[in-house]
Specification:
The structure is a single chain. The chain has about 110 residues and is an alpha+beta fold. It has a single domain, classed as YlxR-like (Hypothetical Cytosolic Protein, Chain: A, 2-Layer Sandwich). It contains four helices and five strands, in the order βββββαααα. A hairpin with a 2-residue loop joins strand 3 and strand 4.
């Protein structure tokens, strides 16, 4: 009897948010990377350097900046890095529900 061909289930990489410690798919999180120039946002997810992942929610970023970011990137963030991250945080939604409602508003247009 011939074997039935089964669809191969694609592996989805999992990462942990350093702010809330929730494990999610890699694509659902924003990557920070340590470079010789300092901390940078990695939109491609492929930049060279030590990385850390955070939700796209303000509360997770605020929690991460209290200390876990230094531990995850194995460095001390300087004032310029913190300023850049705070600028990014100011553009984020307050909570996940605000992010979901913004997405649904954009879909309705």
């Amino acid at each position: 009897m011939a074997k039935k061909l089964q669809k191969r289930i694609k592996h989805v990489p999992q990462r942990t948010c350093i702010g809330c410690r929730t494990v999610l798919a890699k694509r659902e999180l924003v990557r920070l990377v340590r470079t010789p120039e300092g901390v940078k946002l990695d939109t491609t997810g492929k930049a060279a350097g030590r990385g850390a992942y955070v939700h796209n929610i303000r509360s997770c970023w605020e929690q991460a900046l209290k200390g876990p970011i230094n531990h995850a990137l194995r460095m001390e963030t300087n004032a310029e890095d913190r300023r850049m991250l705070m600028d990014y945080i100011s553009r984020l939604p307050e909570s996940e529900t605000a992010e979901m409602s913004a997405k649904s508003d954009n879909m309705a247009d």
